[in-house]
Amino acid sequence: MASCGMKLVAVRSTADVMSVQQICLCDLFPEMRLLWKGGSCGRAMIMPSPPSLSRPWVWMVVVVIWLPGALEKCIFDEVQQSVTVVTTPTDPDGPHPKTTASNNVGLQTRLTASEDTANPFQIPSFALQLSSSQRPRRKRTRELAPPTNHPQPIRIHTWVPRDSPTLSQVESERLEPAVREAVGIVSNLLSVNRVPGHLLLSRNINKYCKFIWRNASAANYNKCGRANENYRTETCLDVIIPDDHLRGCSVYSEPDAPTMTVIRPEGAGLPDTDFLLYLHAQSTDKCRAEPSVLAYAVHCQTDSLGRPLAGVVVICRDRMTGEGYSHQGTVQTVIHELFHALGFSKELFSTWRDCSYSQPGMGCSPRGQVTNTDETGQVRIYTQSVIRALQEHLLSTDPDLGGPLENLDVGSSGLSSHWESRVLQGSIMAAALGDPAVVCVDPVTLAALQDTGWYSVNHSRAQGLVWGKGEGAMFGLRSTCHDNSSSFFCTGSGLGCHYLHRHKGECQTDAHLDGCRIYKPLMVGLLHTYLLQFDRFPELCSP
């Protein structure tokens, strides 16, 4: 049996005697154990009774709660490195792009942006997408023509695979509004040069083709010379991409002859779409292996300039149930994963574009390397907007103040798709999201998305980041976090004030802090309403 750990401390005080009684709150209120999934409820501490107390019984509660997995872990980098990324050329008749391999299968169901149903994530409420053999085909040419030159809010089309499990009413009522809110927020933050006509994704030539013409002087250079008879479908992580979302593919039997044989016809495409989000709600192996993972994402198709056109967000279904579910936490997690899929990815750093002298998406030059290591060993993003945003946040003019990247589990590349928590605690793109009350869509993250060169960003919607505000260029370094130079860090393991001054906290560290310690909030006075008599706690951390 797991220990309770969270106790109600009763202090009985009279003129000549004081007694202490400890009551396990998980036994007193069994429903509380749901918050800890059968684990330890926490730890109780005795606070001295103020001298002015005159009641015979004074109930005093200091509830210190550790929530296993309270920090929501992101496994984007782990998943993304194993995924095929196919580049869609601006000219569909141009050379085929380079790709990697993938082998997943499935069936699809479409949820259009205009549907407004009570249970939009259940199969009965969907409009099933007809296969290519069931619907009349209209000939489409050059659907992905060069984009218009005026950035407009990005249109994210959400598509739910038909093989996603049928969700319960509770799951649907939680997931659907959270995803809708997250998509709406991102659409209001980012603008793109919109895809005209219908969005069509590309097929992986290395999957449907056995032989490719490689003679650069041939008319059919880089085109398929022989079909792979075992070719079946295209995938994005565990999602099968419907044929209607894909370009056709053909075989050219001679290097210079215009004659071709169509293997698969052109799909209908998706109207009014700049990014196609495949949303998969399922209890996957990765969900089961990582209890602190709420969701994960990948990008799987990009345009000729590198901007992601399609990706998957997997929602771990088990996290949609239970008393501990947080709507705001789910919204923030979906935004976090969407930002990854849209370009905040170490796999795409090398394709970011410099739009210093042109409009995003129009004539921008490749940036090349955007990261470097500073003299302390910290890997940083050094792009104009990121440097400027961090300088403004820390109130520093240091020209080398790039955006610091997480250094935990980075592999041989040394790169991460997350900010360093010591410096940007509370950012939407930190490696682990904690209490939704402290997570924000911060200016440094929006600056990074601006510096991809693919988006025009609405910086007026940035949320102010409190952590480290005005602390200077040395803030958050491993060499300074222990020297009491900043009130944001602490030493030892005592009690103090959480940096937002809304909670009392205990000085702790975690895997992302590299030994630096901060005051993590405690849930204090959680059960005052259950007590017969109590006096207020001293307000140690008033706002």
- Average residue pLDDT: 79
Strand proportion, as a percent range, falls in 15-25%
Main-sheet strand order equals 7-20-21-19-9
CATH topology of the largest domain: Elastase, domain 1
Radius of gyration, in Å, reads 27 Å
N-end to C-end Cα span? 40 Å
Helix content: 10-25%
Number of domains: 3
Counted by DSSP, the helix tally is: 9
In CATH's first tier, which class of the largest domain applies? Alpha Beta
Provide the low-confidence segments as ranges: 1-69, 91-146, 524-540
Net shape: globular
Let me know the largest β-sheet: 5 strands, mixed
Structure summary, number of beta strands: 31
Q: What's the architecture of the largest domain in CATH terms?
A: Roll
What class would the helix/strand composition place it in? alpha+beta
Quick structural overview:
With 543 residues, the protein is an alpha+beta fold. The protein has helices spanning 25-28, 76-80, 169-189, 205-208, 285-289, 327-342, 384-394, 421-424, 443-450; strands at residues 7-13, 18-24, 43-44, 57-60, 63-64, 72-73, 86-88, 152-153, 156-159, 190-192, 198-199, 209-212, 224-227, 234-236, 239-241, 249-251, 261-264, 270-271, 275-282, 295-303, 308-316, 353-354, 365-366, 371-373, 379-381, 403-404, 432-433, 456-457, 495-497, 504-508, 518-521. Belongs to the peptidase M8 family.
Please describe what this structure looks like:
This protein is of the alpha+beta class. The chain folds into 3 domains: 7-65 and 524-530, no CATH class; 72-129 and 142-201 and 269-342, Elastase, domain 1 (Roll), CATH 3.10.170; 348-520, Leishmanolysin, domain 2 (Alpha-Beta Complex), CATH 3.90.132.10. It is 14% helix and 21% strand. The chain contains 9 helices and 31 strands. It has helices at residues 25-28, 76-80, 169-189, 205-208, 285-289, 327-342, 384-394, 421-424, 443-450; strands at 7-13, 18-24, 43-44, 57-60, 63-64, 72-73, 86-88, 152-153, 156-159, 190-192, 198-199, 209-212, 224-227, 234-236, 239-241, 249-251, 261-264, 270-271, 275-282, 295-303, 308-316, 353-354, 365-366, 371-373, 379-381, 403-404, 432-433, 456-457, 495-497, 504-508, 518-521. The chain has a 5-stranded mixed sheet with strand order 7-20-21-19-9. A 3-stranded antiparallel sheet has the order 2-1-4. Strand 1 and strand 2 form a beta hairpin. It is globular, with a radius of gyration of 27 Å. InterPro entries: Peptidase_M8. Keywords: Hydrolase, Metal-binding, Metalloprotease, Protease, Zinc. Its cofactor is Zn(2+). The active site is at residue 337.
